[in-house]
Amino acid sequence: MKSFISTIKNIWKIKELRERILFTLLILLVYRFGTYVLLPGVNRAVLEAATSSSAPTDILSMINAFAGGAFNRAAFFALGIMPYITASIIVQLLGFAVPYFQKLQQKEGESGRKKLTQITRLLTLAITLVQGGAYLSWIKSQGAIDPNIPESIFWISNVIILSSGTIFAMWLGEKITDRGIGNGISLLIMIGIIATLPQAFIFEFTSQMAAGGLLIFVIEIAALFAITMVCVLIVQGIRKIPIQFAKRMVGRSSNIPIQGARDYIPIKVAAAGVMPIIFAQALMFLPSTVSQYFMGETTSSTGFLAQLTDISSFPYNAVYFILVVVFTYVYTALLVNPKQYAEYLKRQNAFIPGIKPGKPTQDFIDAVTTRVTLPGSIFLGLIAILPAVVTLFGVNQLFAYFFGGTSLLIIVGVVLDTLQQIESYLLMRKYDGLVKSGKIKGRSSSMQTIGSDL
Fold first, then answer.
1. CA nearest 10: which of 21, 20, 18?
2. Does pTM top 0.70 for this prediction?
3. pLDDT value at residue 396
4. Which CATH number covers residue 161?
5. Which sequence ranges are marked TM in the entry (predicted)?
């Protein structure tokens, strides 16, 4: 406890770090405030009555969890940041299929990234307009529109407000990234998820106590702790590819052979981090949007499309698992470029022992990355569908969101990233880190050592 208090004091002593933490907390407070600002023309009492009786396995409940409860409250940030995530998916996929986007991603450096960011923002706006219309259709289906307001004014004004809310949330996330601590977009998603944790915990506790199952509740907490620890191990797990430097230039002297000068390339088991889960989850929102537009209020409770909106159904979890595995490989391919590694090693006069420079090195790194990514992707897929599994053992759906799946992975990944950034500030000022030995490895550390220069 004394060490923990000392660490907090050290964090507060660093002016820049203190300002970044306070700025992040302020932005998160603004975001949470926006999740309680009601859209004009919505009858909150009617909407609360309708959502309170909705099935907990409905896909809309998952959207509401990501939005921190704003979805069911018809708030300013009802759509949250998910339209931006969907736009990011589309842009990432276009980077594989369209030469123009490939050029922007791989060859044009900072200017290319700026163009991609601008394209993503415009696409986010277009997606928000579509999803905003679907969301208002859902509100209308619940009978929660104030009859005293003309319907045309209600639709036009609220589509604009919902779009503004998503763009504003995206701007808040970018400000956190630039002037705060951690990845802003991920933090906004995490804070929305954590907002529902106390309610889920209390509801599960009271339910088990009413049934006389205190021991069952303790077992659930122990299982949750164990699963969290496994997630931390997988997120931080790496496969080290050893490299050796043949010789280096020292000052103005000639090349001096350095015997035993070794380093390594860290290939993470889950190099893609939480992004495949977010991407897959965003795509799983599409069936509900389609059903709103093309099937209207009388959507049948049977059929494949209906099952894709039920997070407890087998088709939903099968598709979800496959998407997570696929996106893990896709996003890892974007992060880990074997060709760039091979070229870097060649420029630095370094090599992997037993592997020839050039194309053989590239192929070796690619093969190792593929093999390491396979168990990582399967693990991410299994964790993603774990909430549906634990509900079969009697765990309440609301609490199951945190028992595994998207919520747990996002929380673990974002917390590790944030702690890693805080620790870097502490170490730069020659303070002790957050742990007694070693260092915290967030997702950003996947390009450490030689990869940091790529």
1. 18
2. yes
3. 78
4. 1.10.3370.10
5. 21-39, 74-101, 122-140, 152-172, 184-203, 209-235, 269-294, 314-336, 372-393, 399-419
